[in-house]
Amino acid sequence: MTETAAATLGAFMDAELTSQPEVWAQAIAQAQAENLLPADGERVAVIGCGTSWFMAQSYAVAREAAGKGVTDPFAASEAFLGSERQYDVVVAITRSGTTTEVLEILTELKGSVRTVALVGDVTSPIMALADAVVELPYADEQSVVQTRFATTALVYLLTSVGMDLSAAVEDAKSAVTAPVEQELLDAEQFTFLGRGWTVGLAHEAGLKMREAVQGWTESYPAMEYRHGPISIAAPNRVTWLFGEQPEGLDKDMERTGALYIHSDKHPLAELARVHRVTLERARVRGLNPDLPRNLTRSVILDA
């Protein structure tokens, strides 16, 4: 395949991932101007599917760490939201606004628990189900493989709990266009690690690589990595850490022969860099992440 032909693969993903610094700045301003999310002290459940579930995990940890109140993340298909848990608000993250599991939960909760949805498609059914909607149409996407909607929703949520993301925006400006080293294009396997709110980023990075590259990719909390998963680290494999490094992990990684990546750049910018690496790895394999195997833009289940 020629370089020109390869560049047409993932054209939507390319444009969308590259736009992240711009749309993040827009989301920061929007979050600062709106007051739609749960108040401090309210008990919150956050739901999503796939990528949105991992963003829910990051937000939940960040909200609790900021002292804003109990916040539990759930995969929408496995959410435990019964009255005995006494949530004050349920926050749903969904790019399409059509995901079956999310719509079913919001339908069940209508009139009993306040709901807030973050959505990309503002013409979708969720607009009539949620009590409040954070509208992010400028972050919506055409590629099946998500990049900017997920990160923009998370930027909005993190801003709401007081996190300053100006460094993320600045760091991402170079991350989204940086050339990808041959070592990363050729690597056999990737493992992504995180701590605290960045564990969700690690899971999201792993999902991106599986979806777009069909590759062997794993993700873990960083402190758990040495409890078994480090055994797969080896030459021509990559371990990539988002955020704070556990003491001694770099020395342990040296002994494995794997490429260990841990940057002082903001973790969200590092995730954007992973998006670029993922796209270029897909292209050299002749894969199109705009239309990945076995996936659609939204999972809509038959009744």
How would you describe this structure in keywords?
303 residues; alpha/beta; Rossmann fold; 2 domains; five-stranded parallel sheet; globular
Protein architecture, described:
The protein is α/β, with parallel strands linked by helices and 303 residues long. The protein has 2 domains: 3-163, 3-Layer(aba) Sandwich (Rossmann fold), CATH 3.40.50; 169-284, Rossmann fold. The chain is built from 11 helices and 9 strands. The protein has helices at 3-8, 11-18, 20-33, 51-65, 100-109, 148-160, 166-175, 182-186, 199-213, 249-256, 267-284, and strands at residues 44-48, 71-75, 89-94, 114-119, 132-135, 189-194, 216-221, 237-242, 259-262. The strands form 2 sheets. The protein has a 5-stranded parallel beta sheet with strand order 2-1-3-4-5, with helices on both faces. Strands 7-6-8-9 form a 4-stranded parallel beta sheet, sandwiched between helices. The N and C termini lie far apart (42 Å).
